[in-house]
């Protein structure tokens, strides 16, 4: 095996749950403020997962005070404390950017049974 792939394999996290586009997740993210470190929760809908291996990322969107906020998280980051899957969404595509133009009832996603 290639040396780079060996190092990447040792860095990949296996303790995270499986999730995909349309799922509602809570991402517990470590934030450093000077000397202190705290955990902030970012809860929203997963719009996409992209890439693979160590550089895999996912985008989460939430509505905060009527304004859409999106954040991109690297999956294998040591700053992610944990990811909780709140709801599994039933969507037909891997990237659901159409949610950006919708609000209210049309922005709802059905739950998987």
Question: How would you describe what is shown here?
Answer:
- The chain has 113 residues and is mainly β.
- The protein has one domain: Roll (SH3 type barrels).
- The chain is 8% helix and 43% strand.
- It contains 1 helix and 5 strands; from the N terminus they run αβββββ.
- The chain has a 5-stranded antiparallel beta sheet, with no helix packed on it.
- A hairpin with a 6-residue loop joins strand 2 and strand 3.
- The protein is globular, with a radius of gyration of 16 Å.
Features:
8% helix; SH3 type barrels; single chain; mainly beta; five-stranded antiparallel beta sheet
In brief:
With 113 residues, the protein is mainly beta.
The structural class is: mainly beta
Low-confidence stretches: none
CATH C-level class: Mainly Beta
What share of residues is helical? under 10%
Across the major sheet, the strand order is 4-3-2-1-5
Mean residue pLDDT:
94
* Tally of structural domains: 1
End-to-end distance, in Å? 41 Å
Output the radius of gyration.
Answer: 16 Å
Work out the helix count. Answer: 1
CATH topology: SH3 type barrels
Could you give the topology of this structure?
Blueprint: H1 3-11, E1 24-33, E2 36-50, E3 57-64, E4 67-74, E5 80-87
Antiparallel strand pairs: 1-2, 1-5, 2-3, 3-4
């Amino acid at each position: 095996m290639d040396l780079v792939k060996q190092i990447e394999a040792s860095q990949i996290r296996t303790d995270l749950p499986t999730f995909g586009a349309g799922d509602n997740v809570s991402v517990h993210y470590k934030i450093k403020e000077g000397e202190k470190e705290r955990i902030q929760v970012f809860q929203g809908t997963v719009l996409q997962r992209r890439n693979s291996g160590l550089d895999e990322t996912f985008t989460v969107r939430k509505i905060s005070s009527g304004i859409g906020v999106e954040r991109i998280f690297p999956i294998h980051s040591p700053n992610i404390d944990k990811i909780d899957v709140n709801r599994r969404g039933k969507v037909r595509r891997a990237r659901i950017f159409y949610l950006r133009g919708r609000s209210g009832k049309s922005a709802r996603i059905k739950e998987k049974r």
